[in-house]
């Protein structure tokens, strides 16, 4: 079935297909669930004349992937991963190669569409290419009475049972997430916690923040439902090799900064289109000293710069994190010393100050202290970007140090069930063995909610902490476009957990140095 589908779509391409930027896996769909295959702008005047009848080409015969790509032709880390996954010894930016997927992830928002395409193109009774390489995670619109949202979860459940999907993290009792042993929460954090992110591999996901997994030294990128349906049936995808931008972060991180400040600095520097269809590789002494969760925060928001993928070289930090999480062998790769980078950016981290991204774009960068007169209505702490345990530890540290009550509603949304447990179990350093949950309660924050994406992407009106009015919110999430968290008139200020906590204490956008 897979080979027939590929063969049927051979030799349809026109010469302008590649030169004009028609991409075969989604480049920067901002809502994470859309297939956006034509590069913005460059096709506007000619798009009506170009008709793409198919997006497939014949794969190369199956061979065992080479252990090493060698260094006769110097390559970046992203190029090496794609070379190995396409069973080639060398590739260059701009080439289109058939890539073997190691993992395909989908969730409740895009899963039904992906499944529908899979069944339409491969047949109602078709079987997925590998039931142990597909991860299906309900996480977006879970704790809601919305019938269509609940139907989506039913669809992915039925499909997972039908196909015998090994890694389907189900939730059946929405009234109490804790009784659902298989339920995880936000897909990008759960993928890491459950050992699905491994150095040197290729991970495709129907969510634009799939790039988070690049923190593990793998090629991870978001794709649309059509691409995912094809991967589901064949285990392959035709990918255009991206050029790589190199970001060198050096210097000691000041105690008032977090990784969120650094990625806001970078996006503010290059803009939301500055890395369009490019790999963003992060290196430097600052990155070397980062935790895995810090690195995940960096890679998480490369899509907000238009990036195809983000990547950090695997090292001891990576290997220690993966210990006990996976039994699948992996082989890390690193950029060659003489590899060619499209451009290099250098940052002295010691000079970066706490930042926010003002409405309505992640690149609308400003110093937090310059927004001190902005009165806010609420604070939201959560998501794949800012809902990890280290994010909450940072919030708890500042709140405990301040010893004050929050002045605006402050919503706490752990990314996963494991994070929720850690919120209640792990002591906050210097707090006298208090847990994050206890610190939050003492400070007057809302009780930690059930783990999910919750209000990060708006969702049904009964979604927890959704911004249903034209309010001003400081959020640790990743996007602040109009309507992103609900009301189209709401104003969202993206910030680090430190800045979010400080702002909760004052009721205004606040530089965390006032409390640290």
From TrEMBL:
This is Uncharacterized protein. The lineage of its organism: Eukaryota, Viridiplantae, Streptophyta, Embryophyta, Tracheophyta.
